Structures are given as C-alpha cells and as structure tokens.
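Task 17 of the worksheet. Students: predict the tertiary structure of the chain below and write it out as structure tokens. Keep your answer in the requested format; marks are given for formatting as well as content.
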Amino acid sequence: MRGKIALIILTFMTVIFSSCTQKYSTKTVAIQKIDTSEIYFSYDYQNKIYNGHFDLEEIEGDFTSSDSLKLKIEKKQPDKFVFISVVERIWKTENAIVNINTKDENSPVYSFHSVDQKPLFPGANNEYENDSLLFEFFRKHSTPSNDFKKIGVYILINESGKATYKEAMTKNNEEIQLAKILIGKLPNFSTPFNNGNRVTVSYLVEIPVYN
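Model answer:
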C-alpha cells in the first residue's frame, strides 16, 4: 500500500515538473546596466530580442556587474520572465553574452560590465560617473522642460571609442530618431580593453525625451 502511495506521489511530482519545464525556457543573460534601484538586461527568444528590468531588492547577497542572471522565460509570452539566480563570473577571461543583434558587426561585441577597462565619457574618472555626464550631455543637446521621460538605448562603443546607435527600448519612431540624433553628437569615449586587447562593447544609456 505504501509502495502504491509513493508511486502516485512520484508520478504526480513528475507531471508537475514536466508541466513547468514545458511552460518555461531557462536563459542566462548578461547584466547591461545597474542603477540605484533596478537592474537591466536583454535576452533573445526565437530570434527576437526582449528587454527587461527588475528591482534590485529581488537579488539576495552580493554580486558584481560582470556576473550574469539566470531567468525563466514564459514560452507563450516571452516578454514575461522570472528571476532565478545570479550566475557568478568564474573566470576573468569569461565573457558575458550580449543579447542584442550583433550579426552585422565586424568584430565580437562584449558586455560593458564584463570588460577589464571600461570606456569612459570625457570628464568621467570612473564608470559610475558616466551616467550623470551622459544625461547632462543629452539634456544640453535637447529642449529641456519639466515634463520628460527616459528611454533606454543600446549603443556600441568601438575599439576607437566611437559610439553609434544600435537599438532602443521603444517602438515610437520619433523617439528612435531623436535617440539616433543625440547618439550621433556624442564625443569619443576612452578605448575599451579586455585581456589587453581593444574591443567593442555594448552599453545601455538613458536618454531624456521631453514633452
């Protein structure tokens, strides 16, 4: 009798596990940006790129910006995800996966946070000063008002420090065009290096869009 009960429980658990496995796809993705309250990333599913972010409070324990994130992606609604855990970057030479479309690039593209020497905006003493200086640059080259929102934009910074527009986290064509214009005005960053070599990196920046 006990054997039959154990078999029923085992079968039930197997069915539940199988159902959960069929519903989700597991992905390990690179961290693209961290601010004071949220963490940003992107992932590909069935040849489409999705952008996501969640509250930093969901992560327990220490982690670094060069680590990766393990997520469960809903197969029927790939824009929905569940954070599972942080995946530590074990080896210094290990490169995080960049999940933006880089097929048309001539050289490999690295995650900003995974390279040894990160590209700095003119005037920045470290990577943490990049965001405020970039935002001020974009503000000066726009028409500021009290009513604005921020859009996330992926840029590529090449081996010479030149920044180019890659993708935007918006479907609004006017916002995309504005992002391209502002990115086109950026001065060169310092040269990014990884393992002693000049490299190209992806970098997520925030652009103010004024109403």
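Marker's comment: The two ends are 71 Å apart (CA to CA). The first strand starts at residue 24 and ends at 34.
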